[in-house]
Amino acid sequence: VQLVESGGGLVQPGGSLRLSCSASGFIFSAYGMSWFRQAPGKEREFVASISAAGGSANFADSVKDRFTISKDNAKNTLYLQMNTLKPEDTGVYYCRMGNFGGQGTQVTVSS
Question: Which residues of the chain have pLDDT under 50?
Answer without folding.
Answer: none
